[in-house]
Structure formats: structure tokens, C-alpha cells
Amino acid sequence: MASTTSLPFIGTLPAGPRDAITDVAGVTVGHRTLADGPVQTGVTVIRPHAGDPFRDKVPAAAVVLNGFGKSVGLVQLAELGVLETPIALTNTFSVGTVATAQIRHCATANPETGRALPTVNPLVFECNDGFLNDIQRLAVTEADYLEALDAADTDFEQGSVGAGRGMSSFQLKGGIGSASRRVAMADGTTHTVGTLVLANYGRQPQLVLAGHAVGERLAALQAAKEASEPEKGSIIIVVATDAPLDARQLRRLALRAGAGLARTGSVYGHGSGDLVLAFSTAYTIPDRADRPMPAVAMLHDTRLDGLFQAAADSTEQAILHALWRATPVTGRDGNHRAALGELLPASSLSPLA
């Protein structure tokens, strides 16, 4: 993994100790990476807490910045405002397999799922990794989802791993990136906002790093043949917070991640699937009416600005981490993606700080 000591730090808010989504207490991340010749893909799983989200649901909301995507679970999420499975990321053609794995896992833990109990709403997001990965092989299995789930921890790799293994961003190697920011509130408390991205988007000439337009320079260095092609990638952004927010407020928080995405040079192009999910770990909602509902005092809307800044800044930082921590990958038909660190070494990034 490339050193990040010379990378620009985005914004003025402090990061958490890991500068990752897992700085939000209870959140863990796991990967299953498949890297074998033309198969360059995988699964990444985000667990909102250590328990069973089917029994103890998590408040959440999603925003579609541009809907060129094939995710599953968003309709019920928009209606009910809760998560009831871990969040899974994978490639486009593996959404069905991973959703089935989530259903089987829930039914194993709760045998009456879909019988005496309600059905479960699997939640799977995707990006198309078909440039590097032979996506038609349908290489991801249900066992791969379970391995990623079991591997979930507070410390996790970033870059060309898990669902990010075959992803491309700005005609460079993309993948998984994460960051966090801490917000001091007026009442003396502190809340954390953490973000994880699956970066698979962007046109190289438009790339902006910490406010510096470097895309044209990179395109010249790389002689990128695709520099003039239209946008046809995607990004999934997952925002977690320990602030007590309801689904309406979480939707507002999710929207602010779009500000961080735009700063990197994205215009949410026609062929790009740009989706944001935000959830809170401050409380859970029971699955049955005979269990007590939480008594939680939500933040007042006028106190959200710091969290909005944290969502924007941590998203931009997470994208930078995804690009910088990625390693070069050669995959299907010899297709290759160079890593940002190969073309712009840390010494050349330091003046941007």
C-alpha cells in the first residue's frame, strides 16, 4: 500500500483515529477479493452494528444523484427508512447472487423469515467492473459474500480490494476508499461522520485533487485513449454517523456527499450510476411491535451544518484514498489500469497539501 503521509488533507474538521468509516462506533467492513487472470472482482460488506439488523434495524436513507445503476433494495428503504441487512457492494452481474446470499443468511439466523416473520429486504449496490473483470463469468458466489461478512472488522484494506478489485476511476485504478471527520457540537458533544466509497467513475481530463486540476496533466502522461469518451462509470457512497438523525435528516446528509463528489471533477454524467446511502448508529428500531421503541432526541435541523461539511469532506477524502491506495491491475484481455501513485508519486502530491 502506498504511503499517505504526503496526501492532501481535505477540509478543516479533524479525522477520527483511523480516518475511515469504522471510526463510527460499531461499524465494521470486510472484503472478499477475487484476483485470478481475467477474474478481477469481489465483494465488500459494511456491517452497521455487530448484531442482527433484521431484528434491530438501522435508520437510513438513500439519494440517487444519477440513476444509471442496478442496485436492489432501494424502494423499500425509501418507504420505511431502515436497513435490515448489512450493506453489500459488488459488480453489476453479481447483485442477484449477493442478494440471495443475504436472504439465506437472514433466514438461517431467523428461520421464520418469509413465513411467520416478514420477508427481508436485501441491500446490494453495484458498479460495472467489466473493463478489468470478465463480468460474464459470474465469478462471485454466495460463499464470497459470507466470507466478506465474516471478515468485517474495524481495520480493513482500501484500494484494489473486495468490490473495488476491478473498478476504474478517471481511467486509472479505482476501488475502495474511506475517510472520517469529527464534528464538535454546540452542546459540547462530538459526533463522527464516516464515508466509504466504491469509486468507478470519472473522465480523466476532469480529475481534481484537493482543488487542483490535474486531469489534463495525467492524460498527457498516460496518453489516455479514453480521455474523450463520455462518462460511463459509477460510484457508490456510504455515509455513517453516530449522530441521532431520522431518515429524513439522513437523506439530507446523503445529499451533501454529492458536494464532495463534485469537487473531484464529477458531473454525474449520463452513463454514471451515482448513489449515496446514509445511516445512523445512534439507535436501532425493533422488528416487532411488542418490543419497545427507542426514546431518542433527534438533532435539531439547525445543528446539521457541521455534519453536512463532514459528509462532503470525508467523501472527497475517501475518493482520494481510493485512488491513492489502489494498486495497478491487469485483467480481462490484458486490459490494464495504472495506479495514481505510479503517475503522481507522493512527492509530487505534497505541494497540493
Automatic annotation (TrEMBL):
GO terms for molecular function: aminopeptidase activity. Keywords: Aminopeptidase, Hydrolase, Protease. Gene3D superfamilies: L-amino peptidase D-ALA esterase/amidase (3.60.70.12). It is an enzyme of class 3 (hydrolase). InterPro entries: ArgJ-like_dom_sf (IPR016117), Peptidase_S58_DmpA (IPR005321). Its EC number is 3.4.11.19. It holds the Pfam family Peptidase_S58. Belongs to the peptidase S58 family. This is D-aminopeptidase.
